[in-house]
C-alpha cells in the first residue's frame, strides 16, 4: 500500500491544537479512537509514550514520526498532522516539530511496517516536501505532495 493511499484511507489533520509532546500524542490517539481505528485510546497513548521514552521520534528537520506496532489495531494506519506554531518535541536536532506522521500497525505486519517507515523517512528528508507540506492548506494538497514524491511502487 502506498503512502498517499494509506493516508487517504485514514486522515490528515491540518491544525493540531496541542501545545506539547504529550498533547500531540493524546490528540492523535483520540483522533484514532474517534475514527474507529482503536478501541482504547489510553492503551495506544501508553504504547506511544513508552516508545518516546526509549528514544524520541522527533527525527529532525521539524518532523516527528511517532510509531508503534500493537495488536490494538487490525491493519496499518498512517495519519499526517501539522502544527503551525511548532511543538517542543525533544527532537534530535532540538528544533520544534511542525510535521507529524503517526504510523501504527499490527505486530504481524512487520515487513510492511518497516518498509513504510523507511519510505516516510526518505520522503521527509526532501526539503521541498517539508516546505510544501507546511504550506498545504487542504487534505488534497497534502495527498498530492506525498503522491508526487513517494517511491513505493503501486
What is the count of helical runs? 6
Give the class-level CATH name.
Alpha Beta
Helix content: 40-55%
The 3D shape can be described as globular
Provide the low-confidence segments as ranges. Answer: none
Quick structural summary:
This protein is α/β, with parallel strands linked by helices and 154 residues long.
How is this structure best described in words?
With 154 residues, the chain is an alpha/beta fold. The protein has one domain (3-149): Mannitol-specific EII, Chain A (3-Layer(aba) Sandwich), CATH 3.40.930.10. It contains 6 helices and 6 strands, in the order H-E-H-H-E-E-E-E-E-H-H-H. Strands 1, 2, 3, 4, 5 and 6 form a 6-stranded mixed β-sheet that branches. A hairpin with a 2-residue loop joins strand 2 (58-60) and strand 3 (63-64). The longest helix is centred in the last third of the chain and has 15 residues, at 110-124. The chain is globular. The N and C termini lie close together (7 Å).
Annotation keywords:
154 residues; alpha/beta; Mannitol-specific EII, Chain A; six-stranded mixed β-sheet; 6 helices; 6 strands; 20% strand
List the helices and strands and how they pair.
Elements: H1 3-9, E1 11-13, H2 21-34, H3 41-54, E2 58-60, E3 63-64, E4 67-69, E5 77-87, E6 97-105, H4 110-124, H5 127-135, H6 139-149
Parallel strand pairs: 1-5, 3-6, 4-6
Antiparallel strand pairs: 2-3, 5-6
Amino acid at each position: 500500500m502506498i503512502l498517499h493511499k494509506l493516508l487517504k484511507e485514514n486522515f490528515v489533520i491540518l491544525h493540531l491544537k496541542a501545545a506539547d509532546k504529550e498533547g500531540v500524542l493524546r490528540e492523535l490517539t483520540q483522533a484514532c479512537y474517534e475514527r474507529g481505528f482503536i478501541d482504547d485510546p489510553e492503551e495506544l497513548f501508553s504504547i506511544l509514550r513508552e516508545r518516546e521514552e526509549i528514544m524520541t521520534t522527533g527525527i529532525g528537520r521539524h518532523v516527528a514520526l511517532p510509531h508503534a506496532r500493537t495488536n490494538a489495531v487490525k491493519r496499518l494506519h498512517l495519519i499526517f498532522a501539522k502544527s503551525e506554531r511548532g511543538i517542543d518535541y525533544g527532537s534530535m536536532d532540538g528544533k520544534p516539530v511542525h510535521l507529524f506522521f503517526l504510523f501504527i500497525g499490527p505486530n504481524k505486519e512487520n515487513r510492511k511496517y518497516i518498509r513504510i517507515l523507511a519510505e516516510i523517512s526518505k520522503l521527509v528528508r526532501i526539503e521541498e516536501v517539508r516546505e510544501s507540506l507546511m504550506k498545504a492548506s487542504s487534505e488534497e494538497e497534502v495527498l498530492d505532495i506525498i503522491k508526487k514524491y513517494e517511491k513505493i511502487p503501486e
